[in-house]
Fold this sequence. Notes:
This protein has helices at about 10, 20-25, 30-40, 45-50, 55-60, 70-80, 125-140, 145-160, 165-185, 190-215, 220-235, 240-250, 250-255, 260-270, 275-290, 295-315, 325-340, 345-355, 365-380, 385-395, 405-415, 425-445; strands spanning about 15, 20, 115, 120-125.
Amino acid sequence: MGIQVDPEWWSSGVWNGRPIGEFLRRRDVAAVFRFLHARGVSYGRIAALVGVSPNRAAEIAKGARQVTAYEVLERIAVGLSIPRPAVGLGQHEDAGGVQDGSRASSVGGGAGQTLAGEGASVKVSSLARLRLDLDEALASASVAPRHLDLIEESAGEHMRVYPSASPQVMLSLLAADCREIQVLSRRRQPAAVQARLSGAAALLATMCADALMRLGDVAEARRWYRTAIHAADDSGQAWLRVLVRAQAAMLPYYYGDPRQTVAIAEAALAVTPTASSSGALAAAGRARALARVGATEQARSAIDQARRMFDQAGDGDTDVAFKFPAKRLLLYLSGTYTWLGDTSEAYRVQDEALRLYGAAPAAPIDVALIALDRSMCLARDLRAAEAAVTAREAVANLPEAQRTEIILTRATDVASVIPERYHRGEVAALTDYVQACRERARRLGTTAAALGP
């Protein structure tokens, strides 16, 4: 079992030439872990005793992660046999403040010089102790800079993985980081720290909302978009406020009233006059929704706006989630020209978009949506059988876990625009295939359960 923790260490141990008790009083968990490791207790053993992973224990010891949550401090105290009062988790006596069995006051009752005035007296030592306690509380509420870096790096990694991963997998991955930010945000944080936490929370919540949207869980997706907007506003970052609103505008486009998409996209564009890739996304989403509701002239004007904004601030070629490179602009223009009924321009845009995505796209759902736009164009051109085959292939070419409701809804839209007299052969096969995919998705249990307790 290796070396065991000796409770006597906490009263007599010395670390870096100072009593370990000093580090305990400051709740310096990094020093405590290093103190134990120097005595032969492995980080794996420490991790097992306090209920964290070995990697997490090592990161805490290095100062890369800071322990602030009360319940974690309790686990550490219990697991390492540290007296609770030593880390401020229970009643503790102050030698200068408790005499003849009397209890200390709320600010301490130590001996010292008394300042009198206005009928009140406060001992200097009590004020000093109060100041030290306040400094400690402020320090313990702050998240270490490296910890913030790790949280933001983790969010960035999720954004890199997101376009190619199934929404079910992403929800389970995102849940852990959402919970970590939740725990940290429950404690008072300095403004700069809270802004960074809120920024990371906004990105994570937007990915959760988008994954739920793909799965067709409209109500829960809407709630997560609200959370994302709240977090983005709290971050104070204008580009992020635009981005989250632009993404939220997609929900009514796919599952509701596209006029709501127009309104939300316009709210995104009103956040700041500064051009950004997020603004170009909002403008492109607005153009597509305007085309869908039949506002032809407004849609064409919005296309021009989206192109101008993209030329000013569009992203370079990338597959990271929520970035807006040329191929994603073309994805939105594909839908816009499709709803405008300008099939020749739609075909041209689709060909260019598919060329940019390449033969092995990192974001297969984007390619499927472009193929489904093409199917809509074929249906409008009365090429019913070709439209049905193209739509079915668009769905079938996706990994099974990505044949989600957002794709199946668009495939159903294709079948719905094909005149009734053509609803046989390939069109009937498409309808049956979509229904089979829905049944399969239900059996797989693709829900939001990953975010549950």
